[in-house]
Amino acid sequence: MNTLTAVYPGSFDPPTNGHMDIIERAASFNGRLIVGVLANPSKSPLFSVEERVELLKELTKDIPNVEISSFSGLLVDFCRKVGARIVIRGLRAVTDFEFEFQMALTNKTMSPELETLFMPTSTDYVWISSSVVKEVAMFDGEFEGMVPKLIKDVLDKKFNR
Ligand code: PNS
Predict the structure, then answer these.
(1) Architecture of domain 5-123
(2) pTM beyond cutoff 0.85
(3) Residue ranges of the domains in the chain?
(4) Which residue from 38, 42, 104, 155 puts its CA 20 to 30 A from 50's CA?
(5) What is the mean pLDDT of residues 110-120?
């Protein structure tokens, strides 16, 4: 029997506790979970794609069925390449839904065999986003509880805190 392969795609700039919550819960199904880090130079990320991949590798090193990989171009092409038929996306609030729904249907149109599964983010993390974390870090605010310790340390270093 083939192992079920799912892709959890995102920018992860940087990974937050909300991302980690989705990764841990999606990995608990025991299929192969590939975290796909988007290499999109037009978004001018704070962390390079190599940095984000390394950080996620460190954060998931104790979860055996999780792999970290980067991709550029279309998500559907990356899913085909790695043999995934499932895309996992976390939904924080209704405001996420419109964009996520559009993205899921665009991907389904391009690749009908691909299913997008939405997981509600745990209530503790619904308000967290990478953008908010970056803004708080940039202006020297406290972001305890928003990101894993490793990410707090690298953000402190990035912003010379
Ligand atoms: O963490 P993000 O920024 O919300 O993730 C968005 C992501 C990476 C899932 C999305 O931008 C994406 O899949 N980009 C790849 C380009 C693509 O496939 N576009 C067509 C679907 S809209």
Answers:
(1) 3-Layer(aba) Sandwich (3.40)
(2) yes
(3) 5-123
(4) 104
(5) 97
